[in-house]
Amino acid sequence: xxxxxxxxxxxxxxxxxxxxxxxxxxxxxxxxxxxxxxxxxxxxxxxxxxxxxxxxxxxxxxxxxxxxxxxxxxxxxxxxxxxxxxxxxxxxxxxxxxxxxxxxxxxxxxxxxxxxxxxxxxxxxxxxxxxxxxxxxxxxxxxxxxxxxxxxxxxxxxxxxxxxxxxxxxxxxxxxxxxxxxxxxxxxxxxxxxxxxxxxxxxxxxxxxxxxxxxxxxxxxxxxxxxxxxxxxxxxxxxxxxxxxxxxxxxxxxxxxxxxxxxxxxx
Length: 267
What we know:
The protein has helices spanning about 30-35, 40-45, 55-65, 85-95, 105-115, 150-160, 175-185, 190-195, 210-215, 240-250, and strands at about 1-5, 10-15, 25, 75-80, 100-105, 120, 135-140, 160-170, 200-205, 220-225, 260-265. With about 270 residues, it is of the alpha/beta class. The protein has one domain: Rossmann fold. Strands 6-5-4-7-8-11-10 form a seven-stranded mixed sheet, sandwiched between helices. Strands 1-2-3-9 form a four-stranded antiparallel sheet, with no helix packed on it. A hairpin with a 7-residue loop joins β1 (about 1-5) and β2.
């Protein structure tokens, strides 16, 4: 167990679940959770070029095409959890979905609505539209949820029979994390603080995420694992760090030890 905190992050003790093996932050306060997603969070998100970049749009389109590759007059109802400024909703709309979103930050929800998108300002745990949706997406969201299995249960209830859930999150069994833990053992803590010291509160890997999905009644259809891109738009990274991260991801790739994954599950 170790303490994880940094400015504008969610502090807490990093704990290991004895039942499922997942890492998570314990002893986190409601105040720290609320502070992490107040106005300053919205300002940061609005200035984050990555979320509205062509790189992100292409990625979202690739993810969505994996779900619904068939051309049809039927417009699948899609719900995006933590939709931010609505980038995924825009891409989903262009691909023939009937999309709507949920966003906890009111400033970001307003930005998405100003684009003409249907976005609800609410906590996803309060979702109560049984068997309404064909698809639910969670893109870089589940790691921010203090009770992720409870949320997965809510989403399962709100999907139609045969409906699909897509979860995009870091893979904490990746080579980057393994290296960070080894460095921490010899007193070099900067890498592990970078991974665990932000506003993420649970840390899945390619074993624990499928197990969590299965535990609430989902069937895993596909787990797509791929390398983290440290050179993504809007992210400041030194040439040295860029070279190190790229090399570690390349070394981990043949073994599936990469830092990004998308889980496709079905009700």
